[in-house]
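Q: what does this look like with flavin mononucleotide bound?
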Amino acid sequence: MDSLTTHTDYGSTSLESADLDPNPLRAFAAWLQAAEDAGVYEPNAMVVGTVDAQGAPSSRTVLLKGLDDSGFEFVTNYSSRKGGEIAGNPAVSLLFPWYSLNRQVCVRGTAAPTAAAASDAYFARRPRGARLAALASEQSRPIDDRATLVSRVAELEVRYPEGVEIPRPAHWGGMRVEPVSVEFWQGRTSRMHDRIRYLCDPAAATGWQVERLQP
Ligand SMILES: Cc1cc2nc3c(=O)[nH]c(=O)nc-3n(C[C@H](O)[C@H](O)[C@H](O)COP(=O)(O)O)c2cc1C
């Protein structure tokens, strides 16, 4: 386990607020594009943090599926653990870890289900197998064995043969996160990392305050 003791040099790429778009969602889009261009594996993968009614946190990876000038979207099962926790407390964190670029983006914000029409559109774009799996899986609930799930999918394949429309289950859909803070982190030599954080501020001309944080 050499990784526990090695010190990686994170390079000399610098980050100034002037390098970033005044809108953090647009600045994020540019970094996501850079991650895609650099060939980062699953560049749209992000770790979503939620808290339960007792304030205990949990996290899991999901894929970013939508992005515009005011929010991030992913799709999930609303009855899952994360779905239940968001229903009770919409405060979430998102973390995009782009280690091979010495970059991360940390978001804090508020999550809410997307409009049904947007969820319908996301569902329609999914491959047939993924749509059937969304119908079959009670995400986050225990199940006796894998065979039970496989047989549920087999039943659904008969009920919805190729060419027959598969209805979006009400428990599945988009989740939209509107950020209150977005931090761009650029790793640098000797742990002198650059951190630029946007804080939502309706009184600011751009709607955002921008500050530099110590590494
Ligand atoms: C790379 C990757 C991508 C994933 N994408 C999604 C996703 O887009 N939506 C989703 O609900 N789960 C996704 N998962 C599964 C989640 O990490 C998680 O297991 C599931 O959502 C249940 O989480 P929960 O029990 O905390 O609600 C993904 C997992 C990985 C490793």
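The two ends are 26 Å apart (CA to CA). The pocket of flavin mononucleotide is lined by residues 42, 45, 58, 60-63, 74-77, 80-82, 139-140 (CB under 6 Å).
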